[in-house]
Amino acid sequence: MCGILGLALSRPAASALVDGLISLQHRGQDSAGILTSDITFHLKKGNGLVAGVFNEKNLARLTGSSGIGHVRYPTIGPGSDEDAQPFYLNHPFGIGMVHNGNVTNYYDLRRTLEREGHRQLTSFSDVEPILNVFADELGRTDLAAFGPESVFAAVAGVFRRVQGAYSVIGLIHGRGLVAFRDPLGIKPLAFARRGRDFAFASESVAFDRLGFTRFQDVQPGEAVYVDSRRRVHRRRLVPGEPHPCIFEYIYFARPDSVLDRIEVYEARLRLGAELGRAVKAAGIRPDLVVPIPDTARAAANSLALAIDAPLREGLIKNRYIARTFIMPGQQLRARSVRAKLNAVRSQVRGRNILLVDDSIVRGTTSREIVRLVREAGARRVGLAITAPPLRHPCCYGIDMMTRGELVARRHAVPGIRKLIGADALVYQTHEGLLAALDSFDTGARFCAACFSGRYPTGIGRRDLERLERERRKWSTK
């Protein structure tokens, strides 16, 4: 899961790209990069947060009014400098690209490109094969008569050859910006316009930060091309039923974002109300409901109302610590919990506490938080989770590709409760999860493969095993 941004402005784009990427920083903390274009491409990228990668000196050389940016959260490869995005090729024209998602036929595609297409890939980032396929397909068109039809033909070729979940923004030197979304629309992507300024982004919060007040979702299987004269060309190349990732609403996206016509904050309120019903059914009556900041706050609020219990901020977050879910390595996650959270002892001491969190993946973070609250003097510590048990690996860009990493794959709920040291554990039901999101009536069929094991792109056992082997190979121990 990464954050992507593309701008075509009437002024230099570099500082606006930095501002927009900072608003998307929650989507990736391993690396950041920007590519701009004027008489040539200008690239700066590196490992670290946006504020650490960019400074006044390197921004000064990122000239041009068009550009693309990226924040990375690695799900494949070693996460080295070579994997930081954007990537670019010199032919045809010069094409830069950023993406969010995961290419499920990455290894077959890479082998085909290197052996049959005589292209040397230089990283383990799966945007690189997408970029090479797009360039290959564009090169098959009449480049002397380049226009929107050339771009749409190249994107159609990507849809034929690239499998998985991907939202992509490309910068074609001297020709404009192109953005497209996989035929199932698993990863979010939106488009905004303000006069002669245009923007593409993973989440609408980037538009808010940059002063764009109106936006639309890029549809599944759609390509949007903004040419060098700032004319917009759109085409739905592959009609299909939307399957947006349900985990965006549970955890990844910012609550002030709107994804596929659903406000994330409102979605979490409804998830909390549904979870409240499960807590009631379990007969749990806590003295206090305490959200685990930040993603569980909205859900905890509506859960507390549903069970008629007071809500308190019993845990305070150090905002200078990165998100623990997307940190590599169990030991690092465990250490970071203590640095990230501290209990408000006056609120938890001597009370029965019900903690509310968005999910349990490996169990490491939950165990440390339960221990932290218990050490602060809580009499009993329960845990309510707004998502159902995560039992299946994600193949579409979330860092849970290995079945062995998923605690719910190895243990039933009583075993998980014992493992994390909680006095009670209540999960959202699968029915409650879908009821909360379906209540928005958008017509989407959400990708919930990590809960159900039903992959909308038809992932087979061989593909899962290969992805798991590669994930284990590069995981930090």
Secondary structure: elements and pairs:
Layout: E1 3-8, H1 14-23, E2 31-37, E3 41-47, H2 50-53, H3 56-60, E4 66-72, E5 87-89, E6 95-103, H4 106-115, H5 127-139, H6 148-161, E7 164-172, E8 176-181, E9 190-194, E10 197-201, H7 205-210, E11 215-217, E12 222-227, E13 232-236, H8 247-252, E14 258-259, E15 262-263, H9 264-281, E16 288-291, H10 297-307, E17 315-317, H11 330-340, E18 341-343, H12 345-348, E19 352-357, H13 364-375, E20 380-385, H14 407-410, H15 413-420, E21 424-427, H16 430-438, H17 449-452, H18 461-474
Parallel strand pairs: 16-19, 19-20, 20-21
Antiparallel strand pairs: 1-4, 1-10, 2-3, 2-4, 5-6, 6-7, 7-8, 8-12, 9-10, 9-11, 12-13, 14-15, 17-18
Helix pairs in contact: 5-6, 9-10, 9-16, 11-13
Tell me about this structure.
InterPro entries: GATase_2_dom, Ntn_hydrolases_N, PRTase-like, PRTase_dom, PurF. One of its GO terms (biological process) is purine nucleobase biosynthetic process. It is an enzyme of class 2 (transferase). Keywords: 4Fe-4S, Glutamine amidotransferase, Glycosyltransferase, Iron, Iron-sulfur, Magnesium, Metal-binding, Purine biosynthesis, Transferase. This protein has 18 helices and 21 strands. It has two domains: 238 residues, Glutamine Phosphoribosylpyrophosphate, subunit 1, domain 1 (4-Layer Sandwich); 212 residues, Rossmann fold. The protein has a seven-stranded antiparallel sheet with strand order 3-2-4-1-10-9-11, with helices on one face. It has a six-stranded antiparallel sheet with strand order 5-6-7-8-12-13, covered by helices on one side. The chain is an alpha+beta fold. Helices cover 34% and strands 23% of the residues. The model has no long low-confidence stretch (mean pLDDT 92). Helix 9 packs across helix 10, helix 9 packs antiparallel against helix 16 and helix 11 packs parallel to helix 13.
